[in-house]
Amino acid sequence: MKAGLVGWVVGLALTTLGAAEAAAGPAAFELVPHRAVYAMTLNSTSLSGGVTGASGAMTYKFGDSCDGWTVENKTVLTFAYNDGAPVATTWDFVTWESKDGLHYRFRVRSTRDGVVSDEIDGVANLDGRGKGGVAKFTLPEPKTLRLPKGTLFPTEHTIRLLEAAQHGEHSLERVLFDGTGDDDIFDVNAIIGRPLPANANASPAEATPGVNASLLTAPSWHVQMAFFPRGSSDPTPDYEVALRYYLNGVADEVVQSFGSFSLKGTLQKLETLPRPDC
User: Fold this and answer.
1) The 3-state secondary structure of 136-164, one letter per residue
2) Beta bridge partners of 151
3) Which among 87, 81, 75 is positioned nearest to 45, based on CA atoms?
4) Where in the chain are the domains?
5) Which of 84, 164, 182, 231 could form a disulfide with 169 if both were Cys (CB 3.0 to 4.6 A apart)?
6) What are the pLDDT digits (tens) for 157-197?
7) What is the reported pTM?
């Protein structure tokens, strides 16, 4: 279970659209570098799932490094089970993605009750837009993974998703590689809800102390994403993520579902970060 998956979903980088694209469609957009803190709680559970409680926090930091986008995510959760003692987990995810969407670096570190349970480190490169490529891992062991034609990294996936939303499309299906597993390539099916205009139906987080409410005034959409292992014939996704995505890249109203239980992320703190002098 990827307890920290929401870390890249809830605010991954956007980029300014090219002049030609802007002229042909909706106005250009770009992400505001920001830091967000979400309270994580158990949203639902089944009797057979084993999980009876969950609580913690996720800290998400998105930055602009001039030549790419950076993400630093730390998720801390304590799970309660119906057949044992609570388990404390941490999930650290650090990435860099080039602004052309072709190059990606990733590092993951997980602990369980203070003991390291998983470490992943590697780089991935695509041969061009719309083409395949290769991911090379140094941890947990040296390994090369071929990436199929049409693979997107997380930032580029977010760009395509919001472009589709701006153009009034209601779905998007793409192949995604995020580096959270040493063999994870996903078919991601996204359903895009109706557009919510700027300043419409403001999120409840707007009234929360510590939240910069001006970042919650952009146009937004409710999005539901289902993640299927590449090539799987199972009609049930590995997991699903529902959230409200703002055009500036901020996300709120997050629910992360793993079949037998789901987690809810509620925005508690939100602030802008400075842009670099490029």
Assistant:
1) EEEECCCEEEEECCCEECHHHHHHHHHHH
2) 175
3) 81
4) 6-272
5) 164
6) 988 998 999 999 999 999 999 999 888 899 999 999 999 99
7) 0.86
